[in-house]
Amino acid sequence: MTERTAVPPRVLTVAGSDSGGGAGIQADLKTMLALGTHGMSVLTAVTAQNSLGVQGAWELPVEAVRAQYRSVVDDIGVQSVKTGMLASAALVETVAGLLAETGAPVVVDPVGVSKHGDALLAAEALESVRARLLPVATVATPNLDEVAQLTGLTITGERDMREAADRILAHGPRWVLVKGGHLPGEAVDLLTDGSEEHWLRAPRYDNRHTHGTGCTLASAIACLLARGEDVPSAVRGAKDYVTGAIRAGFALGGGIGPVHHGWSLRTG
Q: CB atoms < 10 A from the CB of 101, how many?
């Protein structure tokens, strides 16, 4: 008689594909495996992408995205959802509607540009992100560029991060994690729900191979929420995980290599 294996927590990523394997759906699924969850995916777009940048992007039809989501959620179920690249207003609004009906924690990574500066969200979709997607988020995880896109605020130091968080919270997420990794000095992030504040700091490593950092962090938060942690402890644990992944990032191709999603699993 075979012994029944316990079903791991189920985490769904709704995002685009990175053909180079460093970010997007590929980074999400690697993170989910590394953190002991069962990863599932709804593909929203396909990109031709490598260490040098994004050479092309093609979004999927709304009906294909909706069908993938319903297929997974209606049969398998989810314990948390992470969103990444949604590309267009139509996809943002479709996904936001699906999330509102699901009843699981949602981590929204409001992906606007790639690591190389390539646009991954149509300008006309920004209002849909503000009005439809952010209100269904348990945690929103904008970086400094995404804060500027969504709020018009340019962050030049830690003193600006509180105002940025307040502006994002005004759109309805329960928590916001303003990521200050592009600031000089320590890698500092601010997590707040408007009443509690958690400043998360980590050393900065001299390693330029950081492709996929934002996707990886958001996915890690979703994994830890699915495992039953509260938001502050999930974000803290995810920050520790992604810091290790950055430290172990490796060269790949001729440009910016990926973080190492399996760093904590290595035995040699």
A: 10
The CA radius of gyration of the chain, in Å to the nearest whole number, is 17
**Rounded CA gap, 20 and 26, in Å?**
9
Residue type, 249: G
Instruction: Please report, as a single letter, which amino acid is at residue 134.
Output: L
Residues serving a catalytic function are 179, 210, 212-215
Amino acid identity for residue 194 in this structure: G
DSSP three-state, residue 42 = strand
Q: What gap in Å lies between CA 193 and CA 236, rounded to an integer?
A: 15
As a whole number of angstroms, the distance between CA 214 and CA 208 comes to 14
Count the residues in the chain: 268
Q: Which amino acid is at 254?
A: G
DSSP assignments along 54-84, one per residue: EEEEEEPPHHHHHHHHHHHHHHT--SEEEE-
Lowest mean pLDDT among 13-22, 38-47, 134-143, 206-215: 206-215
* Cα 222 from chain centre: 9
Three-state DSSP at 140 gives strand
Q: Output the CA angle 138-26-55, nearest 5 degrees.
A: 110
Those residues whose C-beta lies under 8 Å from the C-beta of residue 251, and which sit 6 or more positions away, are: 209, 257
Distance CA 78, CA 11 (A): 6
| % helix, strand, coil for the chain, step of 5 | 40, 25, 40
| Structure letter (DSSP) for residue 113 | B
Question: 75 and 8 in contact (C-beta within 8 Å)?
Answer: no
pTM for this prediction = 0.94
List the structure tokens of 232. 């502050």
Say whether pLDDT at 219 is over 70: yes
Q: What is the pLDDT of residues 112-160, one digit of tens each?
A: 655 555 555 667 788 899 999 999 999 999 999 899 989 999 998 888 9
